[in-house]
Amino acid sequence: MKSGTIDRRLLTILLVVFVQMLGASLIFPVLPLYAQRHFHLSAELITLLASSFFAAQFLAGPYIGRLSDNYGRIPVLIVSQIGTVISFVMLAFAPSFGWLFFSRILDGITGGNIIVAQAYITDITPREKRTESLGYIYAVFGLGFIFGPALGGVLAAAYGPQVPFLVAAVAAAAVVLLTWYALDETLSAEERRRARVRRAGSLTLSSLLGGAPWALPLMLILLIAFLGQFALGLLQSTFALFGEAVLFQGESREVTDVGIGLLLSVVGVSQLFTQTFLLRRLARRFDEAQLVVMGSVLRTIGMTVYALVTSPWLAAFGSLFFAVGFGIASPPLQSMATSLVSDQDRGGVLGWFQSSVNLSTIISTAIAGVFFARGPTVPYWIGAASSALVVLAMIGMMRRMPTEPVRSPEA
Q1: For the whole model, what pTM was predicted?
Q2: What is the three-class DSSP state of 392?
């Protein structure tokens, strides 16, 4: 991208991610309470429902990234989005809790949308702008979370819990059309042919565990990503239940649904502010490792606030700190991972990065219900401890892998 201009392809892929995120965030505050109220699932099973999605995505993630290297970004994006449409429709008409699990697993298997979108952005972005450009994806996450959870809560309160799933399916279908008609392929036929011959080159499990020169620093980055995601997994799988049990205790279902949606919208506003204003300025003054440390400290504060407060007004500060911290830490960590490998393997390394994140989410969401059953605030104390561990791990990483400040050309 030239200074002072914005690549049309970047705007288009961000629009694709926004519509996808809007649809996905519609169901975020609705699904746990839908499973609890209509299918009478326990907290342990509800968090396993979230875990099933990430387990499927964990298994499929590396292959999705490599398929996009081998056959192009656009075909993989379209197939994954069609799977999301089908899964949302299945959620709306699920006759039993077994169908809930099946639909989430299907969405996880085909859910390579974000992995491929990240690979697409790294294809069209020069190295010195990559942290900033990857940050735009998190800004779009924030924008989707501003409207999605609140809209999902309002739709569920006014028309019933099935309606948000159908609206999300329509949004996902719109993404399929947008991808087909508006996005250009970034990999040439020759690049795809070389990727198929190479068969993902060095990015195999054996090379991660072997003697490749980038293997150790990449494994350390994946470990840090795992620890950082653990708190988010605890939060996202229990927050609706936490809201009903603690923040909105004694309130009606309608007030609870809307209130949880609005608190999640605070996350969206904070993410949008972080990625459109804060991260770009911080990236000019601090290197990527320092940004990860800074963001992890803020995430620790956010989880601690959740664990201490019982008022939704005060819980909004937890949403603010956690979202800002997550937004500051995640893009530079991804950028560090992609800088270790050749350009031809960016999709693959992002697949491994996403798999590390998903493995963390699988474990954290699977056990979050057990923690929640012991006490509604227990997951948040554990999440605060996990975020604090990231700070220590990243400081150790800084000694092993020196990094340079990421500055835009005009700076």
Answers
A1: 0.68
A2: helix
